[in-house]
Design a protein that fits this description.
The protein has 612 residues and is mainly β. Among the domains are: 5-98, Cytochrome Bc1 Complex, Chain D, domain 2; 130-173 and 415-612, Lipocalin (Beta Barrel), CATH 2.40.128.630. The chain has 8 helices and 37 strands. A hairpin with a 5-residue loop joins strand 21 (417-420) and strand 22 (426-431). Helix 2 (36-43) crosses helix 6 (87-98). The relative contact order is 0.12.
Amino acid sequence: MRKTLLLAVALLLSTPCTAASSSPSSAPAPKANATGEALYNLHCASCHDKGVAKAPDRAMLYLLSTSAIHQALTQGAMRVQASALTDDQKIRVAEFLTERKLGSQRPHPQAPQCAKDAKPLDWSQPMSASNWGLTWGNTREVTEAAAGITAGDVPKLKLKWAFAFPDAQRVRSQPLIAAGTVFTGSQDGTVYALDTDTGCVRWTFNAAAEVRTGIAINTDTRQLFFGDLLGRIYAIDANSGKELWRIRADDHPAATITGTPTYYDGQLYVSVSSLEVISARKDDYPCCNFRGSVVALDPSTGKTRWRTYAVTKPATAQSRNSKGTQNYGPSGAPIWNSPTIDTKRGQLYVGTGENYSSPTTDTSDAILAMDLKTGKLRWSYQATPEDAWNTACSGREKSANCPKEDGPDFDFGASMVLATTSAGQDLVLGPQKSGIVHAVNPDTGKLVWRTKVGRGGLHGGVHFGMAVSGDRAFVPISDAHDWQSYSTPAKPGLYALDLTNGNYLWRTPLSNACREREFCDVGIGAAITATPSLVFAGALDGYLRIHDAATGQVLRTIDTTAPVNSTAGSKATGGSMDGGSGPLPFNGQLYVSSGYAFAGHMAGNVLLVYGH
């Protein structure tokens, strides 16, 4: 029976943590044959089940890879607390938390290292872009010259090499191409530098947790920046992978980084989100006090220069829930997306999510414009007022922490897009999980036009990123199945709107290509990428589709779930495509990340590189 979003949430909440208690001698000696569950309850639960500051909730730990948890217990942040455990016991704890055997996803043999006498990184080679959205406006457009792939090349594309990520079931980190190298992160926390021609490994860096974000770069200092699942931001040297600094972007124990940091003009901008939305499912959790924010960092040291919260005031005690647990608010308004830079106005744009608890605020489900130098909020545009939701509202029987508003959970998950029409009008586009694209004036935040494209829902509408080229705005719609009831039908597919007025230019709905595939769904949740003539879209059904930008016609369909020979010499497969890693056409090659074992979608662990 296929998993659903709701089942995935239930698994997160029923699966525990990893840190041992604060003192290795504070717990009795474990029995040699104790189960992972018993070991967790004895040594970990006192921190991770009790909301101890900076200790990630156990729901977050389910999202880590087994090897990342084992590494934390043996060599990382929890090594002192776990010193009373044998290595076998640490493995049992890690496997209990993730429900996956250590090394179960690891292909053998390991991917080959580049030859010791290989040439150093060549910085004269072209670079894909310094930020996630491929332009400062996050338009996700690549020029035809930079892409090196035209409509005539599409039938000729052949797999050049495939990299299988060890100990991974999903691939969410969008590659950065620079200096003849692919820089990308992985589920087990490893950041890789791969040769663009062969896929051999130049160097690796081990972060403390899954790297969901893409990789950003300061080309002057050749620093790479990225974030991890547990809310850390890193700066490493692009030539060697050496760590330069790491900081925690927010002290909240549920803080996480999903949007790729943006480096611009001597400052690093980071969006902060959280998974407190999951913790709230437990009746005894004091929901909620996280506040989404944007933080500006000194790229040399990681020190904070300014921080602007989406919820302006800290949460205070509200009423108690039906189980007697104290609730707090306002809270939430997480920021899942990568900041968009407006060089003309000196401001940045982000989109926020729903409030986690009552009362609601006017900055949830909103587009925010901030001053680049000071972080001052210049204006906000709220798309969906009175939206408070957390996972206590999921399922047939709602838990005690579900706020009275009960949704609809219409985040701005995708990044905002700053685009200019052929007539010279600037617009900020906000693609929303409601299925609506909002176009607002970047000077005032006033609505210019609004078009409902998808049905919307918990896993509906636009998830991770649209694209703009010329006067065409390309809108991917997920509308995936989520066990909720809706009055209108789902509309998964790719759609093109006229940038000047929001009218449809063409519609290409997706038909059901899942057949008998387990965990398969229809819809486009992943970010997409466009050139003036092509649109590249990876879907939840595991197929990459290349569309004609003028008509929407599908020119080529590639099944990324088909087994391939990886650079490690083993078989590997892709899966569903979702998340912020969109297909990247660059310098005559097409880079495609495939695999998304989350929310009931198909597992996979490959980076596929096509050439012509």
